Automatic annotation (TrEMBL):
PANTHER family attached to this UniProt entry: SUPERVILLIN ISOFORM X1, VILLIN
SUPFAM superfamilies listed in its UniProt record: Actin depolymerizing proteins, VHP, Villin headpiece domain
GO BP annotations, alphabetical order: actin filament severing; actin polymerization or depolymerization; barbed-end actin filament capping
Organism phylogeny: Eukaryota, Metazoa, Chordata, Craniata, Vertebrata
Organism: Tetraodon nigroviridis (Spotted green pufferfish)
Location of region: Disordered: 38-79
Family that this chain belongs to: Belongs to the villin/gelsolin family.
Composition skew (Basic and acidic residues), residue ranges: 67-79
Membrane protein topology class: Peripheral membrane protein
GO molecular function: actin filament binding; phosphatidylinositol-4,5-bisphosphate binding
The name this protein goes by in its record: Supervillin d
Keyword line: Actin-binding, Cytoplasm, Cytoskeleton, Membrane, Repeat
C-alpha cells in the first residue's frame, strides 16, 4: 500500500468519527446548553446550528429609545407626589433652625421697644431776653456823644476827599454777585409745615447680644467638640415624650417615610446573559419564567432562587451570588433566614415550591428555553433601551455619553444628580454633596419621567416585556405597569439590583478595599493593658456543622445527599477503600480484613474512591428523585499519622500520598484523635487504634485489652486502646474489654453514659464479632461472645482483669444524682495577637445539637505552645488549666510580666464567664496546673497519661488546685513589705521593674529617705542606682 493510499484512509477515518453520535463533531458544543437541548429534542442538532445559523453581531444596534426633544422640566399640570422622606427632613431642619434661632436670636441687633415723645417748645421772647442782657435808658444817655460844627474844623486839609469816581472804580473791580433780599430765619422756620413736634424713641438689644456672645465663647471654649448652633439648640430643647406614640416592631414589614424605596414588597428578578449578565426586574407572574434563565423571587420574608433546566453556568453563579448577598446583607428589604434554592422539575410538590408558586399567583404555563444564541442577542438588545439623565438647574438633560449603553461607575459624582431609566426600573441617584433642594427637584422630575409616556418601538427588546408574553404592555404607551419600580438612591447606599446594571462596579469595590488596606494603621505588637473577653459572646456562640471540601465539593460526613459543583443535590457513594502501612523506607498494602486496624506508633495511607451522582427529578412523578448516569469516580488519599509515629514515617507517608494521588486526587492529613467524619465512616464502625506499632502487635494480643469507644454516629464508631486498669474507666463513656484467648468481649457502660453513646459502642462490639481482626489476636474461625455489663454490676472476672476494686481510682458517679446530658466546651485563651481572645476548640466529628460526653483529648492541651491557658466548661464547674514554662526557653523579666498579665486577664475572664453563665448560683472556678490535674478534670477526657517530668515540678508547688478567685486576689495584690520584695524569688504577680510601687508610703520614705514626689523628680539613672543600693532591683 502506497503512502498516498494510507493518507487517504487516515483522512476518511477523521471524517467518519465526526458523524457518529449526536453532537460528536464538536465536544465543546455537545456539553453546552445547546447540546443538552439537542439531546432532549427541543432544538435541532447543535452541529447544524453551528453550520446554518449566522454569526451573532456583537455591535450595538442603532435602535435606541427615543430621546425627548426637550429637556424634562417641572410641569404644574402633572401632579406628582414628592418624596415624603425628603419633605419630612426639610421640615425637621426648618424646625431645628427655628429652634436654634430662638436661642441664637440675640446674635443680631434688633429694635426691642419703641416710644413716642413730644418735643418741648420754647418761647422765643423769653429765650432772647435770657440770652441778651437788657440795657437801661439812663446808661444809653450817659454814653451818648454830642457833635457840633466846631468839631468839623478839626478835619485836616490834606485829608483825602471821597469822590464818586473812586467809589465807582471800586465797584467795578468787585465781582458781580446775586444779592438776595433780606430774610427772617425765624419767620421762615415758623412758616414750615413738615416739622414734627413728636418723635419716636427706639431701644436696641445691644447689651443682650454682647452678653450672649460672651456666654457662647465660654461654652465653646470648654466644649470638647465644635457643635453647630442648631445642634446646641436641639440639645437644649425640651420635648414632651408623652405625646410621642411608638410603633410596633413585631411586623417584619419595612416601615419608612421614604415613598421612593428602591424595592417592592414582591419582586421577580430575571438573570440572563453570558458575557455581562443582565439583572432585570420583570412582572412577578409565572408566565415571566422560562427554562433557559435563572430568577430570584424576593419578599420581606423569603428569598427564592429558581433555576431553569437549561440555564447556563454563568447565570446560575450570578443568581447564587446575588441571592446570598441579598440574604446576608438584608438588601432589597429582604429579611429571609436563608436562601431557598428551587430547580425546575425537582421537588415540585415541596412546601417551598408551593409557596413559591402561590407568590406568583399560581402555577401556570411558561416559555421554554430559547435559541442557544438568545442570551447574547438579549444582552446587546436590552442595553439599547437604557436611558440616563443628569440634573441641570431644574431640568433633566439626556446624558449623551451614557445613553443606550451599559453604564460605568465613572458616571457617578458626589456633586451630581443622575436619573437612570432601565424600563422596568427608574432610579434617582444623588451624591453625598448634593443640596437638599436639588434632591427634591430631582425626585419630582424623576417621578414625572416615570409617570409620563414611554416609547420602545425602535428598540430590539422591550424592557417592560422582554419575554413577549404580556400583550397588555405595548412598546409605546402611557404610564408603566404597577409592578415596575421607582426608587431614590444615595451615594454608598445603592442596592444590589442597581449595582448589577454597571459594568465595573466590582472593580470599584476592589479599589476601595485596597485603599482601605493602605490607610489601615498597624496595631501595636503587644499591649500590656489587656481586657477580659466578652463572655456573653462565648456563651452564645454555637458551632456550625462539619464541613470537608474535596475537589470543590463539601462532602459533609462522607455519605448521603450532598451539594454538587453546580449547586444541585447529589448522592455520594463509596466505591472502594484501600490502605497501606508505611514503614521507614517502604510501604505495604494491607489486606481487606486489616483495613481499619491502625497503630498509634505507625503511619498509614487510606485511599478512598467515591462517586457523586446528580439527582434528577422525574417530571411524570413530581417530588421523586432518581439518580442520573453515575458520576465520575473521585479519589481522596488520607495519610493518617499516629501520635507516636516517627518523623521518617510521617515523611514517607506524605511522599507516598503524592504518588498515589498523582491522578489529581485530594490529599488530606489526618492526625490521631482529630479524624474527620468522612474518614471515620470509611470503616463503618470497624476502626480500631492499637497501642504500639504493627511489628510488635503479636506480643500484645495476650491477656486482657481495654478500648475506649469514641464517635457520635454508629457508622463513625472507633475504638482507642487504653491502659487495662480501673483508672481508665469513665462513668460517662462506654468501654470494650477483650480477651482474645477466650474470644470474650465485655461491653461496659458507665452509669451516666448517654443512649447514643451506648448505641455507638454496641456497633463497635458487633463489628469485632463480625470481622474478628487478626490484630486483636482473634481467629477467623473463632466465635466471639459479647456480654453487656453496667457500671457497679461487674462480674468477678472483669474486676480481676482491671486489677482493683477501688472505685476511687476514677471519678465514679454512681452516687451522683445529677443528669449529665450536656457537652463540655473548651476555649484557648491567648494574647499572642495583641488582644486577649478566646478561641473555642471544636470536636472534628461533632454532631449538631448532639450530646458528646468527652469530645476533647489530652493532646488539645499539651500540644499547644506553652505556657498556655485553657478554660474548660464542665457545666458543674469551670476549670482554668495553666501550662508550664518550657526548659529550653529563657524567661526574661518582660516575659514574666506579660505572662502574669495574661494569667490575670484569664482569671477575670473565667470568673466573669461563671457569673454570666448563672448569675444566681455561679459555678465554682478552679485553677489547675499542668501535671497536677485532679480526677474530676482528667475524667472529662477519654484517656489521660501523666508526664513524670511535669508531675515532679507541680508537686513542688504548694497549691495544686486552687479557687480562681483566691489565685486572682494573690495575683492582684498591690502592697508588700520590704522583706517580701527583697527576697528571692519575688511574690507572684510582682513586676520586677517597679518594685518601689508595691511599698507603702511609710516604707518608701524609710527605705529611700525621700517621698514619692522627690523620687519621681530624679533622673532615670539616679532612680536605678538608688534602687540597686537598697536591693529593689
Amino acid at each position: 500500500m502506497s503512502l498516498d493510499e494510507r493518507m487517504k484512509i487516515f483522512k476518511d477515518k477523521e471524517e467518519q468519527w465526526k458523524n457518529k453520535g449526536k453532537g460528536a463533531a464538536n465536544d465543546s458544543v455537545q456539553f453546552t446548553v445547546a447540546g443538552r437541548m439537542a439531546k432532549k429534542g427541543d432544538v435541532p442538532n447543535p452541529n447544524s446550528l453551528l453550520e446554518e445559523s449566522p454569526p451573532v453581531s456583537l455591535k450595538r444596534s442603532a435602535a435606541t429609545p427615543v430621546k425627548p426633544h426637550e429637556e424634562i422640566s417641572s410641569r404644574s399640570s402633572l401632579k406628582v407626589e414628592g418624596d415624603k422622606r425628603l419633605d419630612k427632613l426639610e421640615s425637621f431642619l426648618d424646625k431645628l433652625h427655628n429652634k436654634g434661632g430662638s436661642t441664637s436670636k440675640p446674635s443680631t441687633i434688633e429694635v426691642t421697644t419703641e416710644m413716642e415723645k413730644e418735643v418741648m417748645t420754647l418761647d422765643d421772647e423769653e429765650t432772647f431776653g435770657n440770652f441778651y442782657k437788657t440795657v437801661s435808658p439812663s446808661t444809653l444817655q450817659e454814653s451818648a456823644v454830642i457833635m457840633t460844627e466846631d468839631d468839623l474844623s478839626q478835619i485836616q486839609s490834606h485829608t483825602p476827599t471821597l469822590t464818586s469816581t473812586v467809589a465807582e472804580h471800586k465797584r467795578a473791580v468787585r465781582p458781580a454777585r446775586r444779592n438776595q433780599g433780606s430774610r427772617n430765619p425765624l419767620r421762615a422756620l415758623a412758616a414750615r409745615n413738615d416739622i414734627r413736634q413728636v418723635y419716636t424713641e427706639q431701644r436696641l438689644n445691644v447689651a443682650s447680644v454682647e452678653s450672649k456672645r460672651i456666654q457662647a465663647e465660654k461654652v465653646a471654649k470648654h466644649s470638647r467638640s465644635n457643635l453647630a448652633d442648631v445642634a446646641l439648640a436641639g440639645l437644649a430643647s425640651k420635648e414632651n415624650f408623652r405625646k410621642v406614640s411608638l410603633r410596633s416592631v413585631k411586623s417584619t414589614e419595612v416601615m419608612t417615610n421614604n415613598s421612593s424605596l428602591p424595592f417592592n414588597k414582591l419582586m421577580l428578578i430575571r438573570i440572563k446573559g453570558r458575557r455581562h449578565v443582565q439583572v432585570r426586574l420583570v412582572e412577578p407572574t409565572a408566565r415571566s419564567l422560562n427554562s433557559g434563565d435563572c430568577f430570584l423571587l424576593i419578599t420581606p420574608k423569603n428569598c427564592f432562587m429558581w433555576s431553569g433546566e437549561f440555564a447556563n453556568v454563568i447565570e446560575k453563579a450570578k443568581a447564587s451570588e446575588m441571592a446570598s448577598f441579598v440574604q446576608t446583607k438584608r438588601d432589597l428589604g429582604c429579611k429571609a433566614p436563608q436562601v431557598t434554592v428551587l430547580e425546575e422539575g425537582i421537588n415540585t410538590d415541596s412546601r417551598w415550591a408551593t409557596e413559591f408558586w402561590s407568590l406568583l399567583g399560581g402555577k401556570a404555563q411558561y416559555r421554554g428555553a430559547g435559541e442557544p444564541d438568545e442570551d447574547e442577542v438579549y444582552e446587546s438588545g436590552v442595553l439599547d433601551s437604557n436611558g440616563v439623565y443628569r440634573l441641570q438647574g431644574d431640568k433633566l438633560v439626556p446624558h449623551e455619553e451614557a445613553w443606550a449603553s451599559i453604564p460605568s461607575v465613572s458616571l457617578l459624582d458626589s456633586k451630581e444628580v443622575l436619573v437612570f431609566d432601565f424600563g422596568s426600573e427608574v432610579y434617582v441617584w444623588h451624591g453625598k454633596d448634593v443640596p437638599l433642594g436639588d434632591r427634591k427637584v430631582a425626585v419630582k422630575l424623576g417621578k414625572q419621567l416615570y409617570s409620563s409616556s414611554y416609547d420602545y418601538s425602535s428598540c430590539r427588546v422591550n424592557p417592560l416585556d422582554a419575554s413577549c408574553t404580556n400583550t397588555d404592555v405595548p412598546q409605546k404607551g402611557e404610564g408603566r405597569p404597577s409592578w415596575t419600580l421607582f426608587g431614590r438612591l444615595s451615594e454608598h447606599n445603592e442596592t444590589s439590583l442597581f449595582k448589577e446594571k454597571f459594568l465595573d462596579w466590582a472593580e470599584r469595590k476592589k479599589e476601595e478595599s485596597a485603599q482601605a488596606e493602605e490607610v489601615k494603621v498597624e496595631r501595636l505588637s503587644f499591649d500590656l493593658d489587656l481586657q477580659p473577653c466578652d463572655t456573653k459572646a462565648l456563651l452564645d456562640g454555637e458551632p456550625g456543622p462539619v464541613k470537608t471540601v474535596l475537589e470543590g465539593v463539601d462532602i459533609q460526613r462522607g455519605y448521603g445527599t450532598v451539594r454538587a459543583d453546580d449547586g444541585r443535590q447529589a448522592q455520594l457513594t463509596t466505591v472502594s477503600v484501600e490502605a497501606w502501612h508505611i514503614r521507614e523506607h517502604c510501604e505495604e498494602e494491607l489486606p481487606q480484613e486489616s483495613v481499619g486496624q491502625l497503630h498509634e506508633g505507625d503511619a498509614y495511607i487510606v485511599r478512598w474512591t467515591y462517586s457523586i451522582t446528580t439527582l434528577v427529578g422525574r417530571r411524570q412523578k413530581p417530588g421523586e428523585l432518581s439518580s442520573s448516569t453515575p458520576g465520575r469516580e473521585r479519589t481522596a488519599c488520607f495519610f493518617w499519622q499516629g501520635r507516636h509515629s516517627s518523623i521518617s514515617e510521617k515523611g514517607t507517608s506524605a511522599l507516598m500520598t503524592v504518588e498515589l494521588g498523582s491522578h489529581r486526587g485530594s490529599q488530606v492529613l489526618v492526625s490521631e484523635g482529630k479524624e474527620p467524619p468522612c474518614f471515620l465512616q470509611l470503616f463503618q464502625g470497624g476502626l480500631i487504634v492499637h497501642k504500639g506499632s504493627r511489628e510488635d502487635g503479636a506480643s500484645q494480643t495476650a491477656g486482657w485489652r481495654l478500648f475506649c469507644v469514641r464517635g457520635e454516629v454508629e457508622a463513625e464508631a472507633s475504638l482507642v486502646e487504653v491502659d487495662c486498669q480501673r483508672s481508665s474507666l469513665r462513668s460517662r463513656a462506654s468501654l470494650v474489654l477483650l480477651n482474645a484467648q477466650k474470644s470474650l468481649v465485655y461491653l461496659w457502660h458507665g452509669c451516666k453514659a448517654h443512649a447514643s453513646a451506648r448505641q455507638v459502642a454496641k456497633r463497635a462490639a458487633d463489628r469485632i464479632q463480625e470481622r474478628r481482626p487478626s490484630e486483636l489476636g482473634l481467629r477467623s474461625s473463632s466465635s466471639v461472645t459479647v456480654e453487656v455489663v453496667e457500671e457497679g454490676s461487674e462480674p468477678a472476672e472483669l474486676t480481676e482483669a482491671l486489677g482493683s476494686r477501688d472505685n476511687k481510682a476514677y471519678d465514679c458517679m454512681l452516687q451522683d444524682p445529677g443528669k449529665y446530658n450536656y457537652t463540655p466546651r473548651l476555649f484557648h485563651l491567648s494574647a499572642s495577637s495583641g488582644l486577649f481572645e478566646a478561641q473555642e476548640k471544636l470536636y472534628p466529628a461533632r454532631v449538631p445539637e448532639g450530646i458528646m460526653a468527652m469530645p476533647f483529648l489530652q493532646e488539645n492541651l499539651y500540644s499547644a505552645q506553652q505556657p498556655a491557658l485553657f478554660m474548660l466548661d464542665n457545666r458543674m464547674e469551670v476549670y482554668l488549666w495553666q501550662g508550664w514554662q518550657p526548659e529550653d526557653t529563657e524567661c526574661t523579666g518582660s516575659a514574666k510580666i506579660r505572662w502574669n498579665n495574661e494569667r490575670k486577664c484569664a482569671m477575670e475572664t473565667v470568673l466573669q464567664y461563671c457569673r454570666e453563665k448563672n448569675p444566681r448560683r455561679p459555678p465554682l472556678a478552679y485553677l489547675v496546673l499542668a501535671g497536677c490535674e485532679p480526677l474530676t478534670f482528667t475524667n472529662i477526657f477519654p484517656h489521660w497519661e501523666k508526664d513524670s517530668r511535669l508531675t515532679s515540678k507541680a508537686e513542688s508547688s504548694k497549691n495544686k488546685v486552687a479557687l480562681v478567685k483566691e489565685a486572682l486576689s494573690k495575683l492582684s495584690r498591690q502592697q508588700y513589705s520590704v522583706e517580701e520584695l527583697t527576697r528571692k524569688p519575688l511574690p507572684e504577680g510582682v513586676d520586677p521593674l517597679r518594685l518601689e510601687d508595691y511599698l507603702s508610703d511609710q516604707d518608701f520614705r524609710n527605705l529611700l529617705q525621700m517621698s514619692r514626689v522627690e523620687f519621681n523628680a530624679l533622673p532615670t539613672w539616679k532612680q536605678k542606682n538608688l534602687k540597686k543600693s537598697k536591693g529593689l532591683f
